[in-house]
Amino acid sequence: MTKWSAVFVGFILAVIVKSFFAQYEFIGLLIVGFITGYIAHDGAIGGLWNAAVAGALGTIISAILFVLATTLGGSLLGIFGGLTGFTLSGIASVGIVLSYLIYYAIVMGITGALGGIVASKK
Fold first, then answer.
1. Alpha-carbon gap, residue 95 to 60, rounded angstroms
2. Is the separation of the CB atoms in 63 and 96 below 8 Å?
3. Are 37 and 111 in contact (CB under 8 A)?
4. For the chain, which terminus, N or C, has the lower number of CB atoms within 10 Å?
5. Residue 72: CA atoms inside 13 Å, Cβ hemisphere, count?
6. What is the pLDDT of residues 18-77, one digit of tens each?
7. Which candidate, 41, 29, 46, 42, places its Cα nearest to that of 108?
8. DSSP secondary structure string for all residues of 37-90
9. Residues 67 and 74: beta-carbon distance below 8 Å
10. Distance CA 24, CA 21 (A)
11. For residues 1 and 45, is the Cβ–Cβ distance under 8 A?
């Protein structure tokens, strides 16, 4: 069962890590997955599920922010800049988002399972 409070905390932390700590993104997401699983306090499967959902939501929101930023940046360059920025970022984002979605769900899910195990042992 999804613990939305754990997912929300994991989602916020994932967006922060992806936005501001890009050079340490992998380690940050491992820590965020563990925290999400620990907050879920629902064993290995519950921790895995909640951390994977948080990672997927974080990826989707980060991709939307990326498309909006490139569109805004492109529109500042002229009339055709906005169309070009949106089209290129939109097409590229579909493939990138799907691959990142799977990657972040796996990374955060594994450490979320560990966090769930640790939380259920207390």
1. 12
2. yes
3. yes
4. C
5. 6
6. 778 878 888 988 999 999 999 998 899 999 999 999 988 888 887 777 777 766 766 666
7. 29
8. HHHHTSHHHHHHHHHHHHHHHHHHHHHHHHHHHHHHHHHTT-HHHHHHHHHHHH
9. no
10. 5
11. no
List of long-range contacts for 61-68, beta carbons under 8 Å, 24+ apart: 61/11, 61/15, 62/14, 62/15, 62/18, 62/19, 63/93, 63/96, 63/97, 63/100, 65/19, 66/93, 67/93
What tokens were used for 35?
A: 């925290």
CB-based contacts of 116, cutoff 8 Å, min separation 6: 37, 38, 40, 41, 42, 43, 44, 45, 46, 47, 48, 50
Residue with structure tokens 């009339």? Answer: 79
DSSP for residue 114: H
* pTM, entire model: 0.78
